[in-house]
Amino acid sequence: MKSRQEEAPGEKDPLPILEQRLGRLYARQRLGIETDHEAQIFGQGLNFFHIENWYSVHSVIRAILKLTGLYWRGRRNAERLVVRTNNIRSARLPRRFDGFTILHISDTHVDMNQLAMQRLGELVSGLRYDLCVLTGDYRGKTFGAYDAALKGMARVVGHLRQPVFGVLGNHDTIQMLPGLEAMGIRMLQNECEVIRRGDQAIYLAGIDDAHYFRVDNIEKAGAQIPEGAFAILLSHTPEIFRQAAHAGFDLLLSGHTHGGQICLPGAIPLTLDSVLPRRMGAGAWRYGTMTGYTSTGAGSSIVAVRFNCPPEITLHRLTCD
Question: Which one, of 105, 214, 76, lies nearest residue 166 by Cα?
């Protein structure tokens, strides 16, 4: 991301648009944090080392995989998306929402693997669901141009049924926000929406990136949720599981880890790039009274390969206990 001082002639300053959407302080803070830290490899964020920001090493990893003969096999694996189902039972779920189904898509990295995104479009077109949520990381790189990511997301959204809600991930610049919302995604930037069925409601909150830019605010996102109401939190990373559980959320939907992406046999991840228990690195889990789900992601990060960890989209079916 260019600083506003480096803005090329003819480019629009994003700040006025973001100030109108987010408020003056939030917009200036978010843009400023990106300018200071977006390309940082060491320090910043929850992890000390950020290989995703070290662009020059990505080609080295790709070359090593090609030399070992694994690269093209990994590419094919990355294109074989699967649809998973996850049943969630809760005594707090209103009766009118029994059977309510949420399509969960995470970590598309749309500009990295065109065939995987074509497969994603084919899969979602045949699915039945009541609401779709996107949990961040829409572009492949972590800084620089983002036009290709917006165009790719527009193609994905073209296959989805409304309503669609989303949050930003650590790969996403806040400058993508107007473009994402223009294509029909209601982005939740430390905000909450009410989902109604007749005279009953559930609450859907979403927070800004908590992993790298650390601009999440669960307190603000959940401030308007009534005591005892069924509430869902969208977060790019599951690393805020403790805060979410103690804030009273019933369900946390997230991604970020890719399930490891490159795993040993038995889906044992080499790394999750996250600070959290390994059992929370992929699939369904619980913490206290809160249910969580960490998507392995629809796309791939750094290098578009996968081993022993297929990409996924997930249908979460809510049922009354």
Answer: 105
